[in-house]
Queue: 4 jobs
Job 1
Amino acid sequence: MVDILHQVGIKSPKAEVYSALTSVEGLSGWWASNTSGKGNDVGGVLQFRFGPGGIDMKVVDLVSDKRVLWEVVDGPEEWIGTHVEFELEQADEYANVMFRHLGWKEPVPFMHHCSTKWAVFLVSLKQLVETGTGAPDPRDIKIDSWN
């Protein structure tokens, strides 16, 4: 198995980042404008809709201001059964986000695309928390022809 790993520092208290990772308003402000569901309840399901399709994530674990863990229950075949994790640590005035998309079966070309897109969206999360305006789908940076 292979994983996607990223880290980003956000000039903010962890609580603000945690809110952007667990509230529909926050998630729609940095990842997918068309977001619905329950992100702040373990067992809840979040629905993210993008132009070419959608992804449903089950909330597996929440530790307030420290950790968010989702399981992909519907979406691209390569994503089903994988886990998306955000761990938060405060370092002075920065909330450090350790991001992991865990459990890919193999590093297929789509994984390379997704790794870059996760980086784009983590920068969008940083922008949302620091400035109040992110760049969620469909306003995100496009990186290739099928995006």
Job 2
Amino acid sequence: MDDRSVNKNMCSQKRKDSKEDDSLRKRVNLHFQYLYDSAMKEGFSPSDLAKIDAVVELREDIDCFEIPNCVWKSFIALFVSFIAIVIVYLSEWPIKNNTIFKLWLEAKGEDPKTERCAVEKFEFFQDMVRPPPPCCRFCQNVKSIEKVENITPEKFEKLYAYTGRPVVIKDGTKNWTASEYFSFQFMKSIYTKNSAALKNVEKYCQFFTYKSNFKTFEEVFEMSDERAFMKDKSSPWYIGWSNCDLSAANVLRQHYSRPYFLPKQAESSKTDWIFMGSPGYGASMHIDYVNNPSWQAQITGTKRWSLEPPPECYFICKKSFFEVTVQPGEIIVLDTNLWFHATLNVGDNISIAIGSEFD
């Protein structure tokens, strides 16, 4: 019994210590071989040895390191099922791929009528496969983000429009009435419950919650004023949506127009973006994957922008980090395909901004 106890302890120690040297392993093997040979001389059979409690325990300990057959079978079944689903999805036979899409969303507890993506995008993966900028001239001589006013379209085109150099136009929203009308309540009056504008945004437009815990666009305007203005000590919130509903666009565009400084030949995107949120929140550092540079007009509230050139431009750019605060009435012009950027609503008022691309 003493020998068995010693051997069992030795095996246990061997399992715990993966770096045990070969000499100890060899000694243990020799000792077990000696015990086995002695048992055979005494007339024991292998089946008799298998009934010994110590041997049974050792075998159970060793078996615990083996993956059960049921696990392997389950893994193989899942893998085969996955391949089958991929084949069915790509071939659309005998089940159409939009049927699989709906079943997947329903399994996640989401509404297939309002959700446009079955799987969340992985921003870190997008950054990994992001094509490098053609060159780093856009940030080479940038020392700060300039603020200018009364700039002509010709001068804006030459210095900023297509050079990738960021700029803030201080009088960018002159002659606009948006600052007099735009508010949380004004947006709420446009996107009323069960309205076509609200339904179209949820069905056809893009809507980003920026981790504000809103599941639908409708939930945003179901907030009370206390929640919206954080008077009830609620967490800050921030959202963005594309203005692809024609009726809502017609109402909003009564109060803003094409920025005066854009080049005459430049055309703005048909779809504008609205960004709205309380102080203390914004968008985390990211880079966009859009076609053209863009402008964003600060209508109400104040927003702080943080910019970083892409890492491949580190040794060319004079600075690797820029910050600028955009006040109401100002417009920031930025190529978000080139610059990593983050925003933060600061001050005391709800921030509302309108933005669009231009070519």
Job 3
Amino acid sequence: MRTSKRARIKDVAEHAGVSSMTVSRVLNQDPKVSDVKRALVVESVKALNYRPNVSARRLASNKSFFIGLLYFDLDTSYVSKFLLRGLKVCRTTGHHLVVDEIDDDIEKSLASVDELIEETRVDGLILLPHVCDNAKLLAVLKAANIPFVRIAPDTQLSLSPYICMDDYQASFEMTELLIKKGHTKIGHIIGNPNQGVSRLRYQGYLDALRSHQINTPPEYIEQGLFSYDSGLIAAKKLLALDERPTAIVAANDEMAAAVLAAANIARINVPEELSISGFDDGNVAVTVSPNLTTVRQPIHQMAELAIDIIASGKFSDLSKANTREFRNVLDFEIIERDSTANAPVN
């Protein structure tokens, strides 16, 4: 049986037209390599399906080439999308992504994190919402001087590098999009109260309405948990109102999909009678019918940047890091699909 020969650093160097030393420096995230040579090496790594020998690289450096990812709830397209992108990026950089869940039993979860750090000697950790704001976890990581990058944190912003988007502005613009379509009766399903982005998206919704002198009755606002089930409960309440909203802004796509299901149960036509918008642009946004108008969150770029920050070793000692460089705000995009339309004419 014939098997293909595994590519070596020498093969990557020849393919890219650079030295083996340059390839090694790129794989080790050396910032001194020029962008042109780095691009050539990355392209050659992909073309040859090169996978670095992690054991050899560990011996030649102080790195483990393991990166940890801590999450709270895998049952969301956001976490799944981030995870899959992270795995793909690590495959091209020669790192391994080690994934662990933080649940409501924080003491048990902290013990699991201690074990992960002890067994893998991770080069750093990525903390997804709302793990990124857990005070006990942050204290443990800080005491151990373990580098970590937080995604969309809401507290202690000078503690570590973090990556986010402007959730407030995105929600403001999404709500304003509906207002420009003639909607004045716009409901909102708030996200999980444990996550800072929920507050930012709620505030953006409120301020967009206020900027257009639109008064919103309190019954137009329902609490959700970023889950489909919570969205369904909230949506049924909103759609059962005597004077129901003509549009609903849900704080994520799962809850927006639940609004769509509730409308179907109530035989309310979308988007002719009810416009629905979501947030994140996860897989569910294009698997439901009609497809969801949503905010495209740069999840892929967030995963890539988080891994790049840890792999670079730039913040390996957080106590000596320049906190002015911690903030990384990425762009969002409003994606209009078939779940929104002009307000119905009474």
Job 4
Amino acid sequence: MQRVTNCVLVDGDEVLLLQKPRRGWWVAPGGKMEAGETIKEAAVREFREETGLHVEGAELKAVCSMVIIEQDEIISEWMMFTFSASNHHGQLLKQSPEGILNWTEKDDIKQLPMAEGDHYVMEHVLNGEGVLYATFHYTPEFKLLSYRLDPSQ
């Protein structure tokens, strides 16, 4: 099972997002964990590598299982740990090696193309309390088949 982390950086009414070239979907910057890293270390490292910014005070906001199903069989599964931060320093990269970086108004995020489950995660990170625990089932083409959300309160 692959483990990935990402971080939603909020600055006032804006969020720093990354548009991936493969599907044109917008995501919170992040990526795969390396051996021996904590989930927080991975989130901070990946965010810095993709944006040039160092986030401070990142807090865990969501733990999600992503399950890819084809012909009623699981063909892939990974865990995504999503953090949120509002403090940062450093210089934003002019061009990320992973895609296009853009400060986006919070209210505009619902209209952006992204994996369907990411809309639920983003809504929780920006407006929810506690940690969201979720499972998303997708086809190999990332069509959402089903999901379960369990916000902790």
